[in-house]
């Protein structure tokens, strides 16, 4: 028999490890950059992305022609790598050199069907008079970009009418231009960067602006292809309950005539892991071919066949995690910290852990199945270790830690997981993470807290409010906006992070205090670690030992102080101020 099908999405590339395997890709009809033309790829973009410096080399022209590169704050910006610096797109020489490079690519890479002329990663667009003039007229930095790409596209069309160029609508070029239109042979690759990952496109206000831009680009460009993001890029191993978006987005894009979707997942090609990365890769491959397929049925089919007798527990886990993020108020995105998502609460993780205990028990006799179940469990284990490392002993006790860490290492090794995130040093680095678990400091989590007091223009940081004058558990203070406040007991074993933003209102331009008493059997030197968001002061026995009027994200042990403590009763008073976003602190005892 002969079976002919036409995929709905023309460009089908996926970045999960499974899809970096040519055989897997062939079987699942992915036509990525990796597929040799001999296997019928037909959709190779050359080079892959961020090509400005490949078009006009900073090594070749940086010294002699700095004017080819983008002007930022009056200076020409020339970077070592293709991040953070761009080209001066209105310089005629730049157009000439870039055009010659594209012609060279067409000759040396005949296997490609699309040639990429797009901005470098990061920001750094050109602000020179000529570039600024066009961008002002067009109401977007995409103005100069399209103006530039069109000139190359016109030259290419005269010689190679079938060849297409591809450019990005990303970061500073996401807004479409007002007047200029991409040439017929230019594909716009629009990126859906850092929006809500909990809810599908069109079903959440967080996507509204993006969807409007998508519709505008679709109107003015002859072809639009999409780059979207489907993992936590700092922490591939973190549970990431975004199956609702994964289920609906492909069809959403297909309905708007997008010619392709590149779902960016765990994009370290030789690296395994990432929550359900095998499932994600497979579902995407099926939906890119035919977005009309029932995505939930595909998920069920995958879970049933891959986890066999353990499937009901895995399904239950998936369902439970996604229930948490159903409410409209739930929000998480591709860079959200574990502390800031609503679905990693202690109770949820404990339930998840027991579901996987049952799944593992059932899979025990089947080595291959057990390995798959353990890999699915890895994100839950990672979460427990993560919170343990920052003082959350309710997630994992000191007694349980060694065994949990050993299991973690074993699962990583068994699945060739070499990186936990795109940010290589922290937090993607595995040895660093293991070290943070092993050397987890002793977090001090029981405090008396009071606040908030005024801190407009940061005046509160040095204002001596009543709590600094001595501790009285029954005292009543007048705080910001005349709010009456008292000392309140606080203690938590869920995290070493004392999240003041969760405790106090108002939580903007304020300060609050934390106080505790402790006994020392002898007079000695003690070392404490302090991490704060934002500035912090620490008094020990009434003596100011640390004063840091900083603006920072809190990390354990940002500052380390050594202080003399007395035999018997001692006191610690901490003052933390808030200037923007988060507000809280870590306090550790280090010796
Ligand atoms: Zn310029
Ligand atoms: Zn949302």
List the keywords.
single chain, 591 residues, alpha/beta, TIM Barrel, Jelly Rolls, 2 domains, seven-stranded parallel sheet, six-stranded antiparallel sheet, 16 helices, 19% strand, globular, binds zinc ion
Notes on the protein architecture:
This protein is of the alpha/beta class and 591 residues long. The chain folds into 2 domains: 11-292, TIM Barrel, CATH 3.20.20; 442-589, Sandwich (Jelly Rolls). Helix content is 33%, strand content 19%. It is built from 16 helices and 22 strands. Strands 1-9-8-7-6-5-2 form a 7-stranded parallel beta sheet. A 6-stranded antiparallel beta sheet has the order 14-11-16-21-18-19, with no helix packed on it. Strands 10, 15, 17, 20 and 22 form a 5-stranded antiparallel beta sheet that branches. Helix 8 runs parallel beside helix 9 and helix 10 packs across helix 11. The mean pLDDT is 94. The protein binds zinc ion (2 copies). One zinc ion binds next to loops.
In short:
With 591 residues, this protein is of the alpha/beta class. The protein has helices spanning 22-27, 52-55, 58-61, 92-108, 129-138, 142-159, 208-220, 243-255, 277-289, 295-307, 311-324, 346-363, 367-389, 401-414, 430-438, 500-503, and strands at residues 11-12, 45-46, 71-72, 75-76, 114-116, 164-169, 186-192, 223-229, 260-264, 442-443, 446-454, 476-478, 484-486, 488-491, 498-499, 510-520, 524-533, 536-540, 543-548, 559-565, 568-578, 584-589.
């Amino acid at each position: 028999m002969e079976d002919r099908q036409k995929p709905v999405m023309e460009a089908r590339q996926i970045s999960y490890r499974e899809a970096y395997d040519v055989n897997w890709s062939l079987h699942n009809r992915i036509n990525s950059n990796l597929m040799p033309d001999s296997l019928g790829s037909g959709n190779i973009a050359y080079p892959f992305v961020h090509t400005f410096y490949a078009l006009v080399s900073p090594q070749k022209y940086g010294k002699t022609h700095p004017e080819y590169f983008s002007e930022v704050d009056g200076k020409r910006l020339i970077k070592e790598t293709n991040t953070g610096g761009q080209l001066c797109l209105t310089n005629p020489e730049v157009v000439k050199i870039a055009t010659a490079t594209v012609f060279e690519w067409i000759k040396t890479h005949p296997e490609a069907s699309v040639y990429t002329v797009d901005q470098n990663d990061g920001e750094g667009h050109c602000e020179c008079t000529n570039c600024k003039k066009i961008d002002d007229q067009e109401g977007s930095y995409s103005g100069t970009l399209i103006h530039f790409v069109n000139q190359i596209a016109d030259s290419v069309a005269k010689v190679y009418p079938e060849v297409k160029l591809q450019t990005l609508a990303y970061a500073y070029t996401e807004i479409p231009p007002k007047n200029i239109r991409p040439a017929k042979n230019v594909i716009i690759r629009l990126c859906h960067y850092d929006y809500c990952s909990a809810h599908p496109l069109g079903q959440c206000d967080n996507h509204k602006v993006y969807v409007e831009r998508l519709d505008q680009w679709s109107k003015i460009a002859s072809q639009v292809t999409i780059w979207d993001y489907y993992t936590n890029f700092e922490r591939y191993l973190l549970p990431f309950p975004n199956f609702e978006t994964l289920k609906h987005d492909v069809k959403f894009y297909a309905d708007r005539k997008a010619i392709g979707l590149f779902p960016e997942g765990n994009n370290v090609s030789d690296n395994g892991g990432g929550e359900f990365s095998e499932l994600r890769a497979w579902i995407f491959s099926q939906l890119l071919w035919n977005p009309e397929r029932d995505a939930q049925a595909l998920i069920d089919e995958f879970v049933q066949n891959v986890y066999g007798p353990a499937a009901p527990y895995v399904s239950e886990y998936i369902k439970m995690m996604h229930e948490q993020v159903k409410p409209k108020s739930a929000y998480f995105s591709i860079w959200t910290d574990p502390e800031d998502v609503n679905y990693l609460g202690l109770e949820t993780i404990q339930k998840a852990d027991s579901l996987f205990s049952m799944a593992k028990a059932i899979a025990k006799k089947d080595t291959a199945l057990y390995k798959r179940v353990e890999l699915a469990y890895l994100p839950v284990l990672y979460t427990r270790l993560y919170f343990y490392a920052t003082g959350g002993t309710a997630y994992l006790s000191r007694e349980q830690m060694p065994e949990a860490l050993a299991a973690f290492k074993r699962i990583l090794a068994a699945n060739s997981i070499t990186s936990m995130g795109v940010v290589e040093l922290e937090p993607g680095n595995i040895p660093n993470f293991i070290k943070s678990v092993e050397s987890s400091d002793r977090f001090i989590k029981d405090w008396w807290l009071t606040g908030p007091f005024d801190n407009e223009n940061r005046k509160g940081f040095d204002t001596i409010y009543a709590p600094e004058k001595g501790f009285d558990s029954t005292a009543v203070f007048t705080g910001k906006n005349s709010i009456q406040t008292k000392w309140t007991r606080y203690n938590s074993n869920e995290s070493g992070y004392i999240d003041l933003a969760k405790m106090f209102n108002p939580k903007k331009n304020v300060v609050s205090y934390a106080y505790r008493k402790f006994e020392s059997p002898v007079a000695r030197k003690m070392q404490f670690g302090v991490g704060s968001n934002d500035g912090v002061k620490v008094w020990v026995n009434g003596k100011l030992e640390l004063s840091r009027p900083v603006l920072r994200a809190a990390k354990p042990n940002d500052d380390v102080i050594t202080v003399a403590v007395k035999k018997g009763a001692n006191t610690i008073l901490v003052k933390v101020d808030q200037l923007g976003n988060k507000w809280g602190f870590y306090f550790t005892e280090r010796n």
